[in-house]
Amino acid sequence: MRFKSQQRQNSRNPQINLVPMLDVMMVILTYFIVAPRVLTKETSAKQPPPTAGQNGGQRDKSPPAAEPSVNPIVIQLNGEGQLLLDNQPSTEAQIAQQVQAYMAKNPKGGFILRADPRLPYSQITRTLAIVRSAGGNRISLAY
C-alpha cells in the first residue's frame, strides 16, 4: 500500500522533460547557421590573367593619375549670425559672388560651412541656400 501512495504523490507534481525541447532547438539553430551558407552563391568577376606580352611581362608600378586636390572654401557663421569668408566679414551677395568664381575655376570644389551651434537652424539653412543657389553643391557642415 505504501507503494501506491507514493505514486499518487508523484503524479500530482508532473515533471517536464526538457531534453526533447533542447534537441529541437539545436536542430533549428543548426539550420539557421548552415542554411545561409548553402543558399548564398559566391560570385566573382571573371577576368583573364595577364599574359607575358603585356607590359613586357612586368606590372606597371606607377599609381593611377589622381586628380589634383582642391582646398574647400570655409564659410563661417559666428555666434552673432555674421557671415565670415576667410575670417573677413562678408555679405550674402559677396559670398554668392565668391562661390560662383570658385566654382568657375574648380567645378569639383567643395565648401565647408562652420556654424556656431547656438545659432538657430534657419540661419544655417539660409546660408546653405545661398551657396547652393550660387552653384555650390558640395557642402559640408562643421562646428
Radius of gyration: 35 Å
Order of helices and strands: HHEEEHEHE
Judged by helices, strands and strand pairing, the structural class is alpha/beta
Low-confidence stretches: none
The total beta strand count reads 5
Termini gap = 87 Å
What's the oligomerization state?
Answer: single chain
Residue fraction in strands: 5-15%
CATH topology-level fold name of the domain at 73-142: Nucleotidyltransferase, domain 5
Overall shape = elongated
CATH classification, class level of the domain at 73-142: Alpha Beta
**Separate helix tally:** 4
Largest sheet at a glance? 5 strands, mixed
Mean pLDDT across every amino acid position: 80
Strand order of the largest sheet: 3-2-1-4-5
CATH-defined architecture of the domain at 73-142: 2-Layer Sandwich
Question: How would you concisely characterize the structure shown here?
Answer:
This protein is α/β, with parallel strands linked by helices. It has helices spanning 2-12, 19-39, 92-105, 121-133, and strands at residues 73-77, 83-85, 88-89, 111-115, 139-142.
Describe the SSE topology.
Layout: H1 2-12, H2 19-39, E1 73-77, E2 83-85, E3 88-89, H3 92-105, E4 111-115, H4 121-133, E5 139-142
Parallel strand pairs: 1-4, 4-5
Antiparallel strand pairs: 1-2, 2-3
